[in-house]
Amino acid sequence: MLTLEEDVDAHALRRQGWTISAIARHLGRDRKTIRAYLNGEITPGQRRQPPDAFTPFVEYCRRRLADDPHLWATTLFDEVRELGYEGAYSTFTRALRRYEVRPHCEPCHGAKGRDTAVIAHPPGEEIQFDWLELPTPPSEWGVGEHAHLLVGALSHSGRWRAQLAECEDFPHLVQALDAVLRKLGGTARRWRFDRMSTVCYASSGQITAAFAGVAKYYGVGVDICPPRRGNRKGVVEKMNHAAAQRWWRTVPDHLTVEQAQSGVDKLAVRMDERRRTVGGARTTVGELAAAEPLLEIPSVPFPAELTVERTVSAQGLVQFEGNFYSVPPGLPGARLFVVHRLGEDVVSIATAGRAVIARHRRAPRGAGQTVRDAGHVIALERRVLESFSDRAPCKTKVRRPPSEAALAEADKLRNRQATGSTAERVVVDLSHYAAVAEGLRTVPPPKEEENEE
């Protein structure tokens, strides 16, 4: 790069008739460099900018934000990194602003924030739990209009983990809660909830007897948020926002429940890399969480009884937690109940009357295994073989004209169409009406009035 003084000398010598080679030898520069400055291809005092690594991804980002103007930049950054983008997040967001990729949204542009306060949380003191209802889940999940994600976040460090559940009843809450605790590596001394009906009575805020047993089993205290105080558990609310925007918003329709669970787990681990400043020292969420003194949890979950309804497939199987379990033959399409007591290795399948018709060992969650009972296999094969026949199939290329009975029925139909009505004629006996009419022809004489006394 030429300095401003060298650029001035080069232009002056050029006007004096010097050749480019002579100017290059005089200034000790390359001829191509001198020619570029004299032709105005390079501005003196400015370095040539390297090629922008964001340029190949501009169109993809523009299309993604045109489809979803409120897509988080962090979510879009995760996507372009998988596509080969090697720049940093700050460089990526600066490029989004420079190229003006995100479309303008007037209703959101006028939104304003509100005052917030930071609540101090000692390490290992509190975990905040909250249900996140996820709209329009894939139809193959069979969970209805919403999927349900239980999110648990450590109030001090901000580390969070989540677990998908079919519904928000008490057994599914206990199952998801235990899974979140095991992903966190332990439990804090207190749990905080909003006014969930499975945890407390909404009117008074007092915890239920059933959930009191769960709290005593894990050895923790329970705190219930006051009504209309969402900021009191702002840590988990923010994690709900992150899970909805960075994960659920981009979940495709073909993913299974287990694949979606793997996606949210990866996001939670990735967010442990968020940077924090504590006491003037730079650290990360993962380092803060690793230093939190969490309590150990029992080796098995609280023994709540989980019951879900399932439909038997044509192969005599029912699906439960990503695995398939066999039932006796003759029940395809029937609605049965899968019963599992948390902490046990047995899965029972019962009828609507609670009669147990099958019991299997429980396969690991999401393993995709098919567990069959030997008796069920033999009975199913026998039933299928019995349905087979050794008779030759019916011949299709034969001549079979209408029979005499069919022709007679056809004649009846033609006669009805000829009369114009398909209804049979109704015959009414009018003798009764004639007798009544004959009696009405004579008027009875009026009764004589009695003489007054």
Question: What can be said about this structure in brief?
Answer:
Residues 393-421 are annotated as: Disordered. The chain is of the alpha+beta class.
Structural overview:
By secondary structure, the protein is of the alpha+beta class. It has four domains: 4-38; 55-106; 126-290, 2-Layer Sandwich (Nucleotidyltransferase, domain 5); 305-385, no CATH class. Helices cover 35% and strands 17% of the residues. The chain contains 15 helices and 14 strands. It has helices at residues 4-15, 20-27, 31-38, 58-67, 73-82, 89-99, 106-109, 170-184, 209-218, 234-246, 257-270, 285-290, 374-387, 404-419, 431-439, and strands at 126-135, 146-154, 160-165, 190-193, 221-224, 275-278, 281-284, 305-311, 317-320, 323-326, 335-341, 346-350, 356-361, 370-371. A five-stranded mixed beta sheet has the order 3-2-1-4-5, with helices on both faces. It has a four-stranded antiparallel beta sheet with strand order 8-11-12-13. A hairpin with a 4-residue loop joins strand 11 (335-341) and strand 12 (346-350). It is extended. The model has no long low-confidence stretch (mean pLDDT 85).
